[in-house]
């Protein structure tokens, strides 16, 4: 029998079973914290940048994924071949492609103050059971900069969504067409771009 996409939280238990062999290989799957740009305050690029600075990506990998992952610097996984490196420089949500962008809680608070949210603000975050442990840590990291995120079950009512996205075919276009192009279901574009992201230069 073969099982794919095993939750990282189950790996310790499975590794202790002599009847189970675990093969860990690089994939094109990323964890993605999406923001609803159609709702305030996420229509302000400074707020989006503040969220990016608040997150400790290496800490998420080390603490919750048992080190079996890599801190993402942008929408594209690091193991796409070098032929697409130039696309990894595109700013998504107005955030530059660099793991050096976070964590920087002081910088995040400064940006929030510039955007008129010196006291922070409240927001909502939706995810699934598979990512609940990651979501709880994200909530704690956001709280450190004054953003109080409440976990809710209804993704349609949430300001933020935490999930994952793979390129099942290994093709760059699969990620872009689904997540980064403007919502255009008629032409099969932006089908998962619920947050209203738009970048004419990318398209």
Structure description:
- This protein has 203 residues and is α/β, with parallel strands linked by helices.
- 27% of the residues lie in helices and 12% in strands.
- It has 6 helices and 4 strands.
- It has helices spanning 11-15, 45-54, 57-64, 105-114, 132-143, 172-180, and strands at 30-35, 121-126, 147-152, 160-165.
- Strands 1-4-2-3 form a 4-stranded mixed sheet.
- Helix 5 (132-143) links the parallel strand 2 (121-126) and strand 3.
- Helix 2 packs antiparallel against helix 4.
- Mean pLDDT is 80; it is low at 92-101.
Distance between the termini: 42 Å
Strand content: 5-15%
- Shape type: globular
The main sheet orders its strands as: 1-4-2-3
**Low-confidence spans: pLDDT under 50, at least 5 residues?**
92-101
The pLDDT mean sits at: 80
Task: Please give the count of helices.
Answer: 6
Task: Give the SSE string.
Answer: HEHHHEHEEH
Structural class: alpha/beta
Overall radius of gyration: 17 Å
Main pleated-sheet profile: 4 strands, mixed
Helical amount: 25-40%
- Per DSSP E runs of 2 or more residues, the count of β-strands stands at 4
Describe the SSE topology.
Layout: H1 11-15, E1 30-35, H2 45-54, H3 57-64, H4 105-114, E2 121-126, H5 132-143, E3 147-152, E4 160-165, H6 172-180
Helix pairs in contact: 2-4
Task: Describe, in short, the structure shown.
The chain is an alpha/beta fold. It has helices at 11-15, 45-54, 57-64, 105-114, 132-143, 172-180; strands at residues 30-35, 121-126, 147-152, 160-165.
């Amino acid at each position: 029998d073969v099982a794919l996409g095993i939750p990282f939280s189950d790996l310790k238990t499975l590794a202790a079973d002599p009847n189970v062999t675990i093969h860990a290989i690089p994939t094109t799957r990323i964890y993605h914290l999406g923001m609803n740009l159609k709702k305030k305050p996420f229509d302000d690029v400074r707020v989006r940048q503040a969220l990016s600075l608040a997150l400790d990506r290496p800490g998420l990998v080390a603490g919750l994924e048992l080190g079996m992952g890599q801190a993402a610097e942008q929408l594209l996984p690091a193991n796409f071949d070098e032929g697409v490196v130039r696309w990894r420089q595109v700013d998504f949500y107005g955030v530059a492609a660099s793991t050096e962008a976070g964590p920087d809680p002081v910088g995040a608070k400064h940006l929030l103050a510039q955007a008129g949210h010196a006291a922070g603000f409240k927001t909502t975050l939706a995810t699934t059971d598979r990512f609940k442990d990651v979501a709880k840590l994200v909530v704690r990291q956001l709280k450190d900069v004054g953003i109080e995120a409440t976990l809710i079950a209804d993704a349609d009512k949430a300001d933020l969504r935490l999930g994952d996205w793979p390129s099942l075919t290994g093709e760059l276009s699969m990620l872009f067409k689904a997540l980064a192009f403007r919502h255009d279901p008629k032409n099969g574009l932006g089908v998962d771009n619920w947050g209203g992201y738009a970048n004419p230069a990318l398209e």
